[in-house]
Write a structure and sequence with these properties.
single chain, alpha+beta, Beta Polymerase, domain 2, 2 domains, 7-stranded mixed beta sheet, 8 helices, 7 strands
Length: 324
Amino acid sequence: MGEDVGRICAFLLDGHGGGEELDDTGVRNAPGADGVLWIHLAFGEGATADWLRQESGLDQQVVDGLLAVGTRPHVAAFGNGVLVFLRGVNLNPGADPEDMVSIRVWIEAKRIISVRCQSVTAISDLRGAIAASKGPRTSGEFLVQLADKLTHRVGPVIDGIEDGVDDLEEQILSCSSPEQRNRLGELRRQAIALRRYLSPQREALSRLSHDAATLLSESERLELRDVGNGVQRYVEALDSARERAAVIHEEVGHALAEQTNRIVYLLSIVTALFLPLGLVTGLLGINVGGIPGAEEPRAFVAVIAALAVLIGVQLAVLRRLGHL
């Protein structure tokens, strides 16, 4: 359905939580019907761009926003509607959750147009809620439910990062391995990547109460504020996980540095012990005449004894100086 315009789905919301799924004819006739029209489009389809520019009746700035390649979460009001850019965790097969996918939404009182780059689980949740007559009743409620479902999907990913940091904190401090240190770095990178979009999303949701005031009821504004508070808590959790990972990384670095210093110190002690012995044996091994004891049968035993005494003296001196 709707392949000619790159449309994924279209619904006419009935105002009671349900809605009728529309075909091409239904979409064309919907503007005169009673209810809220929601059209969901696929980004990257050439026909999608043509429909938005030629048939949607939207302002050119709004169309450019819906078709923008790179977006960060923000809100922009235009006339009787508001353009909203949000992000959701990437739960598509084989994708990294922190590679958050973009959803762009134009909302008017009686019409909603959404464009997505990749499959967004929150949109699938909305379609399921509409099918079960538990979906949005107004365009403002659509915005609230979309933001809530996007935020809800972030929770398990952040919980996984926090649990991973907890586990690695215990393991690394007791016995560090390269694999554990690499995993710690990966968790820290995930936290940074998620915060990159969640922080501006928090600001965007806080602005919606003002910029979309004509589309939101008082209860919807309160619900949207609760969603924004949830995003704020997730941002704080990411900050905490990132800081803890940084502290663990520093502690691991200090432990590795101390281990390296101990090894270098031990090598220095061994070098200090054998340097005089090497000097003595080197002098006795030169191939010139006049080497003391060259003709004496017991000279070798005497040299070994002298070297043993020299080692004993060195050890006593090093212990006296506090190096052992």
